[in-house]
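ARCHIVE CARD
Drawer: 12
Card no.: 0347
Subject: one protein chain, sequence and derived structure
Cross-reference: see card 0346
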Amino acid sequence: MKVLFLTLLLLFCESLGATVTVASAANVSYALEELCEDFEKGSGVDVRVVVGSSGKLTAQIERGAPFDLFLSADMSYPVRLWKRGFAVSRPRVYAGGSLVVWSLKGADISGGVRSLQDGSIGRIAIASVKSAPYGRAAERALKAAGVYEKVKSRLVYAESVSQTNRYIVSKVVDAGITAKSVVMSPKMAGKGEYVDVDPSLYTPIEQGIVILKHAESGSMEDARRFYNYIFSDRAKAILKKYGYIVE
């Protein structure tokens, strides 16, 4: 897999044959590397993945970005694209996501989000509440736990889950709230400590997928193949490995 850093993170699963372009929420990028590699082995289709926050990807799609499918971090953006005529398939949930508190600086996070009110913990990273569903869920959890007012001055808002992770891993912050799929990935295994955020503190994160209108320009068959693959038993097994909830 080839990785380039441009305005967005571009991940290429390289193989011979046709190409399908997938816009993906940052939280699923680690799992998607394995998913597209598995898909390519059985299909011969090259998958080009563009990773960013769901909100920014949606804005790009509405401005005509040449993406064939969209894997969002929630259902609101796929529904918006469907209603505005940018999607040709109805929004469908492909996985359920969850939150963790994660630290590589030895912070005591044993109490989950409530640990973050401790004054010994400095800056705390979360994704943007404007464009990242995981950021909104993180803020909701902090408020539901009754600690938001105590920590808001220490919050560092990242553009996406990917940037949140970079802040945590580089130790720019003492702790952060991110997607469980990140800490479950082989690349991050054993790094720091993490604690699950009580799921009763935030609305379940239902992640949606749609086939986009751009696929009608020539890649519809391959787009549908990848779409169907995401709901296959093979893909579900991979998603489960990264901590996602799948039916």
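Annotation on reverse: The CA atoms of residues 70 and 246 lie 18 Å apart. The chain has two domains: 2-96+205-241, 97-201.
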